[in-house]
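Work Package 3 (structural annotation) set out to generate three-dimensional models for the target panel prioritized at the project kickoff. During this period the team completed the workflow that converts sequence records into discrete structure tokens, so that structures can be stored uniformly alongside our sequence database. As a representative example, we reproduce one entry of 189 residues exactly as it appears in the project archive.
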Amino acid sequence: MVGYLGDPAQAAVLAGWARTLLAERAGLRIVLDPVMGDHDTGVYVAPGMAEACRTHLLPLASGLTPNGFELAQLTGMPVDDVDGVVAAARTLLTGRTQWVAVTSAAPATWPPDAMHVVLVTATQAQVITHPRIDAIPKGTGDLFCAALTGHWLQGLALPEAAARACDHVVLALRRTRQAHSAELLLPTQ
């Protein structure tokens, strides 16, 4: 699992290491959470990170977990509605990449008190709707990626792994809100 990188040069170094591992273990699964920013804060990584991810890491990833903002940064495409999210995500399904799970996808289309994760493969697109919890700690994307990856590596089908990851994040946010914490509190179960 690859997450936040502080400098675009790290992407090239990490990609070199990953290529070595893939040569030794062709079945290795790499999941990339291309951390770059969010709708409420804009880009918060070093300039050139989107290009470094596209060039070095995307070709090696089995799956990706960008949020809607990051998907737009990676593709340069509009992602205002679910169809736009699906179209943009499918442009990233090249090389080893089999799936994209877009968190906080198409916010203008969310039902009241809910939000969407859009899971996209070459042949399917599934919208997972989950409760929207009134808490805004950082790290929910990291938690989603880790939970999805863990469930997927344990053998769950991708849609079930994504749904369980959503449940895990919702539990963490409920706990965080209940404790009035500014930091994300992980579920105890």
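The longest helix spans residues 158-178.
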